[in-house]
Amino acid sequence: MKQRAYMGIPREEIAWNPTIDEEKCVGCGQCMEVCPNGVFEMDEAAGKMKVVSPTNCVVLCDKCMAFCDQDALSFPDKEATKRFVAERLRAAAQQAKASDGKR
Ligand code: SF4
Ligand code: SF4
Fold first, then answer.
1. Can you tell me which atom of ligand 1 is nearest the CA of 67?
2. Which of 26, 79, 17 is nearest to 51 (CA)?
């Protein structure tokens, strides 16, 4: 399977996905309904939502958070994630420049 990437960075290397506070989650299903990407799955036995495919989450999207009445969803710091992506892009550009110079 082709590895997914975000701006050329392997998706797995970017820590961006929702975290569910199990204490707060009431299993209403709103988050799963609003997300088209298969990130969530309902744990019917527990009556709680689960994050089953974290890397399906679109980097820097936090749309589902607004739909959780229980305030059970959280995300990493957006600015820190942007900085991480920018640093990786800078590093990749420098590497490309260095290998160009070797030719
Ligand atoms: S919207 Fe919130 S309370 Fe409802 S299932 Fe999702 S995480 Fe749980
Ligand atoms: S942030 Fe966006 S892509 Fe990620 S789980 Fe929520 S709605 Fe889906």
1. 1
2. 17
| Cα–ligand 2 centroid distance for 69 (angstroms) | 16
* AA letter at 79: E
Dist. CA 65–CA 60, nearest whole Å? 12
Domains, in order of start, for the chain: 5-102 (3.30.70.20)
Q: Which of 49, 52, 64, 65 to mutate to test the pocket of ligand 1 (most atoms within 8 A of CB)?
A: 49
Q: Which of 30, 41, 65, 74 to mutate to test the pocket of ligand 1 (most atoms within 8 A of CB)?
A: 30
Two tokens at 99? 């290998």
pLDDT digits (tens, 9 = 90+) for 43-86: 999 999 999 999 999 999 999 999 999 999 999 999 999 999 99
* Beta carbons within 10 angstroms of residue 8's beta carbon: 9
Query: Distance between CA atoms of 65 and 75, rounded to whole angstroms?
Result: 8
